[in-house]
Amino acid sequence: MAKNKEFVKFDNVDKSYDGKILVVKGLQLDIEEGEFVTMLGPSGSGKTTCLMMLAGFETPTHGEIYLDGNAISNIPPHKRGIGMVFQNYALFPHMTVYENLAFPLRVRKIPKDEADKKIDKALSMVSLHGFEARMPMQLSGGQQQRVAVARSLVFDPQVVLMDEPLGALDKNLRESMQYEIKHIHESIGVTVVYVTHDQTEALTMSSRIAVFNDGKVQQLSSPDELYEKPVNSFVAEFIGENNTFTGTVSDISGETCKVKLNSGNEILANPISVKAKGDKTTVSLRPERALINPKDKMDNNHKGKIKEVIYHGDHTRVRIDLLGNDQFILKIPNSTSNLDIKLGNDINVGWNIKDSRALDPK
Amino acid sequence: MSTEQILSSDGIPLEISLKKAERRNKIKAILLVAPLFLFLLITYVFPIGDMLFRSVDDRMITKMLPNTFTAIDKWDGKDLPEEPVYAALYKDLSYLKKNKTYGKIIARLNYEKGGFSSLIKKTVRKINKFEEGNYKEQFIEVHKRWGQIEYMGALKNASPNWSYAKYLKGVDLKFDQERNIIQQPEDRRIHKILWLRTLKVAFWVTIFCFILAYPISYLLATLPMKYSNLLMICVLLPFWTSLLVRTSSWMVLLQQQGPINDLIVMLGLAANDARPELMYNVIGTFVAMTQILLPFMVLPLYSVMKTISPSLMRAGKSLGGTPFVAFRKIYFPLTVPGIGAGSLLVFILAIGYYITPALVGGASGSLISNTIAYHMKSSLDWSFAAALGTMLLVGVLTIFWIYNKLVGVDNIKLG
User: Fold this and answer.
1) Domain range spanning residue B315?
2) Given strand A291-292, what is the order of strands in its sheet?
3) Are B318 and A107 inside 8 Å of each other by CB?
4) pLDDT of residue B100
């Protein structure tokens, strides 16, 4: 069966709360059936509003949302058949785990023996077998989280929405829950729309990520593409660590351009959003793509002065002053060969054209 | 397990040094609590104790007729008592006559049996002319009631130091001559009606308050801050107004020529010469008490609703419940502790309410507390007032106990 490429479709959706400011501007977003799409962005970027519009708790000011080809703006939330996991779990505190899971089945008038089977299946999916009689208050944060996930899946919804579900958990638990949710998604193939402001969470879990800023989707692509090939400087800054140089394009030809930096030096870069000579640009370079004392010949080679060395266990972060940017970060894997990394030393740094991306100016 | 004592570094047992270290804090805590404790003791525990005591205390008459009661104790109550009883009675009465303090026993004995008033008065008037010996005959000669077994029986019944007769009176019961508990005559059964009316009014006021308060509290808890603050002030405004002023303003509104009646006439619901009576009956009591007690229902409900996360209702809806189902299965059950607290508060306050029914209740709208006040201020039967007060207190405690059994007091949330 061919999968519906536009299973969830935001068609030119605007949203304003006060009639003055648009929190979502002309949103255009297609989500494929069975996909795990994450809406990632800083707080106030409109991602939660989009989720709430999809769930039916907010109505779009303009535009339409389609679910499996049907416009849903006028369908109340309880008829949409969308499962949702809330930020604070929203488990019903006066009901046991069993009753919490039975709620969506009961309102759908599913017979008890069938409901019991579904509840059983959902609970074993989140490995909470035997917790049926507990009250939510008696569970740990991680367990409550699992119950919330099980509850959102127990009635076999077409789409499951998750609104920063792991925000309240500690780091270790959060990481293991990330994998768990990912595995559940893989095993049952439900479409998941996930909202988070945590980029590592987004990168580990998603099939595609929509980066939100200022009410707009800045980039929608797979995690690796998002990280390796950001299309603008916001995405480059927001996802992962990033070194930047600002300057003006002094020469451009095909896959290469020359950028004259404010410090006067010239570097070679990959023109992404610059078109012509004289364009202002921000050149973005991932820390791990810049090598220290490169053995092979590289497209860019410059000398920098070490300003700070921070030991991180598996790697060392080195801050250097390079071409007028004293916030240039290098990540150096900890091996015995890097012995001359000392404060104040001069080192050679090299990188290739394709890794330094000339993006829009900030 | 080892039972060895753990010692602190200077060799003193750990428990003792811990106590020493905490003594200062303990003293500080006691000193901080002491003023309130004393205040409560003086203004609350003592008066209530005194009231309980007064309601069963019947020693006044025992002190005034000591010899008579000692003598009458041996009497079996079948035939007229023997000479020693009358001799003792002579001794007591002539002593009382000398001190001119016999007035008090007249009221007390008359309560036991009507007719004692004239009996005692006449006897005391003539007691100086009594000759020594054969008192029984002389007494009967002064007034024939001294020769009637019912009057002597009533005298004997008044002798115990402690009596729960006032409690019986409170529920329209009394002792007969043989000290059997019987009902009051039909025309004197007024207290049962009052108790039932008090319970009925308290019950319906609680229901009305709940119906009115639930939506207001919901609005208060869900509206944006700037509107909910304004609404909160509207709810609390009556709190800051004197109770008397509020009740009087209800009198202005509800009177026969008042604005509400004008409106009823204007709308054609009643003829001008047949204006409905909205005051000095149960209607006035209901209306005024509901308004006055409303905040006591709103505040606990509000504080409970405030803690219910809006995402719970959303979760209920996203899981497929209609708004009504989500409300009934999720929101409402979570507000039950607030409903319990508010209802209990309103019910207990209503059951002992005094000023409002006194002012707008009239005869058919007055409650048990008005009767207590009547016996305190007008009839001066303090022991009966105390007995009614004690019954009210016990009633409230019983309701509280039942509530605790059914709902659990720890489920109550006041904030």
Assistant:
1) 191-411
2) A291-292, A346-351, A300-311, A315-322, A325-333
3) no
4) 81
